[in-house]
């Protein structure tokens, strides 16, 4: 079937309206009318070919929410009319150790929601900046939030799970002192989630102007990381630091804030590496630096249910499809609190 979408024909071209083909639903497929799609920084990097390997035309989008329009004959987990979401992946091998543990995000054959090789036309996946998508039922999530929150639920599918998964893996909860570095699309979710898990949350920002915002998001304390005295006051005190900053920066400034056996986990993906940390800062207190990439399908469902239960959604600005290019420019200036979400009903115009 042919659907309207927004995508780019080349890395130096703006996104424009285009027609794309979706496969007819197979026995295990769910066909979804997309209501909203969040805009992730990965979309911008991919469309502009800032990471290697972008295939054009490129239709990005992996923060997808909508309603089931049709299901294949063997689909048991979703029915027509259900509110559902699709995140960063639409397939994986389904039988490796990672897939069997529900960690499809680490499968060597994970298929990204866009720009990943597939048997479907045109040979690579096309994402959520479109009227509809067809996805294997295993990779379709149930949404239990009230329908009026649907647009603000969309960013949970990438920004939400990217921050939820490491907070759970490193066992953040009541009694934990947690730092969240960077207050953007990822960081604002990290603050909300860590707060809801019962941790004492300290937000780190480079800008004085975000102090009140961070408090409103749920931070117990806010540290302006350029202020050496403020930083020093937290030396050797954190159990866990979630670092969401994608730009290369001095990791040592935060490592020394971890107490013995503390971990700092990086979830931002910089185009060039961070300067190497001082190994003594790791050795002396048995500290660790780790990384984490989105989360598996069962954990993504757990995150959505946790957010529905705690009334957690993203802070968003809803835009029309023809405003996507302008939104990208504002994202590059950091001029968004905290996620743009596309109203996909405007794709048809
Ligand atoms: Zn993303
Ligand atoms: Zn696998």
UniProtKB/TrEMBL annotation:
Boundaries of every Enoyl reductase (ER) domain copy: 7-342
Protein name per the record: Alcohol dehydrogenase catalytic domain-containing protein
Taxonomic source organism: Duganella levis
Origin: domain of life: Bacteria
Keyword annotations of the record: Metal-binding, Oxidoreductase, Zinc
Transmembrane annotation, as ranges: none
Listed cofactors: Zn(2+)
Family named by the database record: Belongs to the zinc-containing alcohol dehydrogenase family.
Keyword Oxidoreductase: yes
Keyword Disulfide bond tagged: no
The organism's taxonomic lineage, starting at the top: Bacteria, Pseudomonadati, Pseudomonadota, Betaproteobacteria, Burkholderiales
SMART domains: PKS_ER (SM00829)
Entry-linked Gene3D superfamilies: Medium-chain alcohol dehydrogenases, catalytic domain, NAD(P)-binding Rossmann-like Domain
Pfam families membership: ADH_N (PF08240), ADH_zinc_N (PF00107)
Entry-linked InterPro entries: ADH-like_C, ADH-like_N, ADH_Zn_CS, CAD-like, D-isomer_DH_CS1, ER, GroES-like_sf, NAD(P)-bd_dom_sf
């Amino acid at each position: 079937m042919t659907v309207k979408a927004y995508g780019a024909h080349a890395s130096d071209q703006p996104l424009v309206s285009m027609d794309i083909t979706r496969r007819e639903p197979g026995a295990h497929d769910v066909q979804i009318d997309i209501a909203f799609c969040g805009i992730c920084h990965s979309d911008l990097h991919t469309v502009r070919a800032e990471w290697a390997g972008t295939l054009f035309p490129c239709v990005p989008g992996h923060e997808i929410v909508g309603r089931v329009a049709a299901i294949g004959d063997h689909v048991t987990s979703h029915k027509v009319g259900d509110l559902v979401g699709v995140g960063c992946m639409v397939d994986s091998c389904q039988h490796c150790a990672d897939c069997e543990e529900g960690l499809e995000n680490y499968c060597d054959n994970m298929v990204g929601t866009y720009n990943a090789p597939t048997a479907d036309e045109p040979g690579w996946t096309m994402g959520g900046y479109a009227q509809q998508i067809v996805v294997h039922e295993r990779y379709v999530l149930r949404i239990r939030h009230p329908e009026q929150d649907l647009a603000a639920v969309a960013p949970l599918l990438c920004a939400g799970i990217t921050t939820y998964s490491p907070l759970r893996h490193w066992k953040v909860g009541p009694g934990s002192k947690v730092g969240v570095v960077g207050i953007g699309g990822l960081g604002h979710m990290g603050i909300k989630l860590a707060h809801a898990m019962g941790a004492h949350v300290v937000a780190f920002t480079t800008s004085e102007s975000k102090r009140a915002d961070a408090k409103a998001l749920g931070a117990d304390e806010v540290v302006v990381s350029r202020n050496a005295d403020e930083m020093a006051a937290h030396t050797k005190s954190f159990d866990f630091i979630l670092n969401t900053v994608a730009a290369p920066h001095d990791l040592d400034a935060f490592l020394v804030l971890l107490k013995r056996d503390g971990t700092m986990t990086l979830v931002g993906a910089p185009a060039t590496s961070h300067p190497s940390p001082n190994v003594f800062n790791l050795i002396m207190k048995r500290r660790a630096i780790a990384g984490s990439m989105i989360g598996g399908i069962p954990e993504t469902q757990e995150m959505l249910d946790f957010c529905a239960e705690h009334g957690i959604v993203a802070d968003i600005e809803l835009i029309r499809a023809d405003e996507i290019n302008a939104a990208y420019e504002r994202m590059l200036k950091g001029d968004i609190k905290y996620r743009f979400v596309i109203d996909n009903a405007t794709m048809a115009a």
